[in-house]
């Protein structure tokens, strides 16, 4: 898998674990029990490349999620809150179990200009409590341009219209080594309008990371090789869908791509992994230096025009696109005046179906409000794969109605630059007059035949018979033995013979003992160190992922091994890193090799080395 986000974008993932991070103590006011730490990923820092900042706060309330604000008036810095991760902790303090909630606030800051900038201060609000955390100063270096890289942003010819789906193409050309390289692509266009992106589906293609104000977005990208100016470029192409949401002329600064490349060195170290004896030296790789380069595209001007007022149909509700159609179905076609009819209105077409609304049923010669009682207000719709359906109820008010007339739906065709209208097929109706119910139509539930006046003897006999019948229906205790039983054997006996009382008592005692044992086990588990449990869990999961990579194709297996080893390093930063980082770099090289025979398995020695490293991490996690 060409996973540029996880392989090229290594600088975006390593800071989350804060490997070799710089911890900066924070000075706050308010409540002393709230403790904070502020961490930044290791430098150097470059213009255009995001820097991950993590603020950890312990002692906050677990009843609600605290709010955090960044006092950052500098226009040279752009930031976004990537994640808020709560963690519940329990520890034993002199025999007393104390529970605390820890919050990790993860930010990403990107500088647009070189220089030393203050990041923060930060303000944490937890109900009525506030905690101030001092700012941290970071120096961002200017990034030189290079002729080994190009970046293009392409749009179809405008003007465009609100809610139009405009395809946007991003093309990145790179003639360098992809291994040990991080990439960041950003454009002011991505933060000016709304965008829709499809989720990546093909694991054999590249994932191109795009940085926006809302965070990083992975785009499915195709890859090809092309020679230009005597250099062999690898070209990554991805697409987004822009949806303008306001009218005007917008000047967009150039798109920019920045890469960060790790220069690896080699050194010898004494191999003491054996029985405590180091007779041999081994060669390991380490990060010798970090280089950054950038490429800049062309500025552009985007014009978003308004819809023309001339010729705008009454049934136009803001739909933009082409090829729309409307269909209407009714749940009944034979009704009386005033009966409800359920209509299902379905819209289809190439355009903004997600934001489409149901047209007025009476627009452009539709249903006459004098003959139909129509719904008022907005009607929510249900979005399907290629359609949107609205369900409404109408009532016929006129017996002369013979059909549900055609419903009109209009949209603005961006290709023809004009309005178009589609209509549904009419539905034949048979309407009958409404029935009037009077007092004469009300009858008893059990009508009895009429009879003449009865004599006093007949009335008395009837009442006596009814009394006897009612008494027979009552529960009778006649003949019942109401004596108090004092024999214990009789009281403990089970006349129905279902379950023996001894069995019930034994089961109750065993259930009580099982509950006590489970409580003891739960208490021991709750007192365990959460960090140790988390490390064990990560080590077991990644070891399983490494074992599963045996059955994968070479490129996909190499990507899976690299991701698993990174997770192991992030969970246990104190474990010796050189051999693991070297294997990660080797796997990344295999991921970006031109595909020759991707179906062949990964080399057994790489898999064996990864399994040995996973075993070592599992032992260290204990």
Explain this structure to me?
The chain is of the alpha+beta class and 622 residues long. It has 4 domains: 10-141, Immunoglobulin-like (Sandwich); 149-303; 308-432, Immunoglobulin-like, CATH 2.60.40; 530-621. It is built from 8 helices and 33 strands. Strands 12, 13, 14, 15, 16, 17, 18, 20 and 21 form a 9-stranded mixed β-sheet that branches. Strands 23, 25, 26, 27, 28, 30 and 31 form a 7-stranded mixed β-sheet that branches. Helix 5 packs antiparallel against helix 6 and helix 6 (554-571) packs antiparallel against helix 7. The radius of gyration is 38 Å and the shape is extended. It starts with 9 loop residues before the first helix and ends with a helix. 26% of the residues are buried. Residues 1-32 have low confidence and may be disordered.
- Please state the oligomeric state of the protein chains shown: single chain
Largest sheet: 9 strands, mixed
**Mass-distribution shape:** extended
Structurally, the number of domains stands at 4
Q: Which structural category do the helix and sheet elements fall into?
A: alpha+beta
Count of separate DSSP helical elements: 8
How big is the Rg? Answer: 38 Å
Percent of residues in beta strands: 35-45%
Report how far apart the termini are. Answer: 33 Å
The overall pLDDT average reads 79
Low-pLDDT segments: 1-32
Q: Count the beta strands.
A: 33
Helical proportion, percent range:
10-25%
Region (Disordered): 443-467
Protein name: Protein BatD
InterPro entries: BatD
Biased composition (Low complexity): 454-465
